[in-house]
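Reminder to self: tokens first, then the designed residues, so the page reads top to bottom the way the pipeline ran.
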């Protein structure tokens, strides 16, 4: 069966090249399976540049088609069979090489080392062997592109979008920092992709505070400010835009139906140690801003776990800014659009690392509970399309040994 190849010309990349992945203390063999071929385009290819109308950008992108650090995407089907290209780009064009994730439909993620200003063939005649021509298959690509190419007898068209949309706002926990495959292993992605029937944006960045102009000695904006910016707080974005990144039109895209906020870890830790009152006031400011922007959205305040302490033979959990977050919830209690999601009781002490970042299993636990909360409280049907947590093997996976 003939499959239309799909190529992308890389501008800049995201993940550190060939980083070691540990599992149960052992080095994972072949942690980044799959490599894309580097080729040169000729007249047999039809090309689309990054600004083509056939490409639908999702998430936060600026006018140069450079994305926010966390999970974002662009989509464009190719033929045959119909294929959707999704671009997820957590870094900046200043990166010259890296490793990227590649996924087709619900198949396992594959990874490829890439270099800037190079063209790679990601879909070949062997990619979808056994898949009927005409099937629509989601192709996800984790890299910044200059364009997409398909054979001359193929074409791209803008894909339809889901009716519902979710926005997740947070720091390193929501962005999946230190999980096996970063954002792809994080609870925010596992939850949003696991819904199976919603558009989503993950506006999260490691180290960002909720408090504005109070962290890291002052002079550093927090999420209430960055929520209106197309670029994240990272050093790569600052190197490109300085302290004046492009504004992002939060009203310009599809309105969110559900907004989930989990913040407080960076406000609480040294050197910041933001007071409860400052945290409370900036949280209220952010909730007010979101409600003004999307008046029909349900806003969920997710509690932020802290460290576990050993008392006798019992590990006791803690919650950061518990009273202040409940105060924010109480502030809007008479309104039905603000809810509280309690994470206490979901994780155990061995579900997090020493800096409170979840293990892969911890991320799965949070996402699973949140999916069921959404099904019950929002009355949303769940339509998962398959595996979303790649590379997680649960022992024992053998029926005899």
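Designed residues (401 positions):
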């Amino acid at each position: 069966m003939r499959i239309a190849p799909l190529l992308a010309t890389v501008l800049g990349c995201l993940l550190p090249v060939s980083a070691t992945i540990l599992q149960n203390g052992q080095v994972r063999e072949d942690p980044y399976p799959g490599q894309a071929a580097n080729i040169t385009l000729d007249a047999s290819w039809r090309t689309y540049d990054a600004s083509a109308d056939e490409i639908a950008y999702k998430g936060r992108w600026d006018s140069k088609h450079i994305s926010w650090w966390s999970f974002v995407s662009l989509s464009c089907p190719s033929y045959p069979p119909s294929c959707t290209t999704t671009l997820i780009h957590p870094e900046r064009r200043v990166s010259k090489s890296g490793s990227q994730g590649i996924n087709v439909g619900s198949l396992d993620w594959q990874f490829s080392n890439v270099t800037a200003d190079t063209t790679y063939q990601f879909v070949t005649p062997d990619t979808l062997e056994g898949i009927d021509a005409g099937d629509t298959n989601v192709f996800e690509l984790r890299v910044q592109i200059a364009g997409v190419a398909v054979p001359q007898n193929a074409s791209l068209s803008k894909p339809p979008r889901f009716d519902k949309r979710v926005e997740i706002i947070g720091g390193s926990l929501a962005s999946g920092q230190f999980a096996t495959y970063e954002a792809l292993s994080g609870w925010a992605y596992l939850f949003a992709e696991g819904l199976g029937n919603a558009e989503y944006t993950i506006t999260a960045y490691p180290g960002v505070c909720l408090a504005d102009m109070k962290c890291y000695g002052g002079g550093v904006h927090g999420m209430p400010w960055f929520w209106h910016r197309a670029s994240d707080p990272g050093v790569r974005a600052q190197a490109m835009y300085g302290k004046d990144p492009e504004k992002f039109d939060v009203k310009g895209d599809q309105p969110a139906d559900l907004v989930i906020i989990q913040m407080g870890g960076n406000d609480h830790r040294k050197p910041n140690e933001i007071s409860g009152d400052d945290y409370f006031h900036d949280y209220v400011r952010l909730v007010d801003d979101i409600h003004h922007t999307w008046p029909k959205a349900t806003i969920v305040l997710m509690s932020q776990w802290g460290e576990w302490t050993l008392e006798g033979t019992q590990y006791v959990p803690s919650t950061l800014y518990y009273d202040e977050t409940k105060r924010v919830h109480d502030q809007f209690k008479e309104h039905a659009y603000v809810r509280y999601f309690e994470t206490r009781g979901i994780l155990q002490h061995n579900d997090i690392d020493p800096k409170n970042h979840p293990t892969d299993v911890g991320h799965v636990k949070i996402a699973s509970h949140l999916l069921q909360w959404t099904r019950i409280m929002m009355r949303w049907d769940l339509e998962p399309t398959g595996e979303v947590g790649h590379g997680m093997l649960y022992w024992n996976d053998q029926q005899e040994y």
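Helices lie at 172-175, 187-195, 223-226, 235-241, 265-268, 276-293, 322-331, 360-377.
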